[in-house]
Amino acid sequence: MLPAHLKILAKVGHEVQLEVADPVTQRRVLDELEARYPMLGGTMRDRATGRRRAFIRFYACEEDLSNESPDTPLPEEVRSGKEPFLVVGAMAGG
User: Fold this and answer.
1) Any idea what DSSP says for residue 25?
2) Nearby residues of 55 by Cβ (< 8 Å), 6 or more positions away
């Protein structure tokens, strides 16, 4: 699932379904997403370093995975398609 501004950019609906080879990790999900929707390249991760952008967060199974290694396998519920991998635009302000 993508935040509204990225759904608009990619011209997709509420949810994007991907086939990702094992091991299913954040890196592989994002690589596949950017390969299918090249306009998303650089929006979630820095193009040069591959690091997560400051105002993007990743969630799965009600857990914030944003600071986990991008090569850590995602939970089984995500790998099996039962639960979504969420890309969320973080909010900031005072």
Assistant:
1) B
2) 89, 90, 92
